[in-house]
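Worked Example 4.2. Consider the chain below.
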Amino acid sequence: MDNLESRLNQLSVLEERSEYFQTLHLEEKLGELRLVQRERQVLERTKADAENVAAALAALQEALSEDLAYLADTAVAELPHANLWTRLREKIEEGNADLKILCQKIAMRVEQLLSTIQYVESEWNTGRHAIEGRVYQVVASLPGLAGKSGEEIGREYGRVIQQVEALRPLAAKKRDATTLVRGAGRGTSQSAVRMACHAA
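Applying the procedure from the previous section yields the following structure tokens:
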């Protein structure tokens, strides 16, 4: 019986806390934080992709060999197919020249992309700080939540809601037992209460 009463008292406290959360529209504000977190993931993915492109470009530029001395006329003059190696060197030189021009254009595009991402991140951070500021200003008044991250606040909110839902059936059982007591008289009272305690 004492255990049941204790849990019902706990339910009363949790319901009051839950109602306070609802008054502050905490669930809505936590939803905003979750959306901001999704935006963070989008930003981080975009930055990673752009950095991968920049790294691939750097690798390509490094792979464009400037040292073709092994194909110089003097190096292949005595070889039986010297004319083939000479033509190959010429094609490599032409290809390298074309690729260098392309790399320069790509490098400009990558630089523009990185600059745009930096601008977007700055603008997003301004909006993010505004949203987080509103949420944290609200939760600063909640006992035990001040200074906690959005994720921690979300877990606490979820814990309170889950506990309320888990304990509410006990309150319903107690009401049913009380109804039985009033209807059947004092003789049934102890039995009904014991049944409610057992079910809890």
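The two ends are 9 Å apart (CA to CA). The chain has a mean pLDDT of 79. Compare this with Example 4.1 before moving on.
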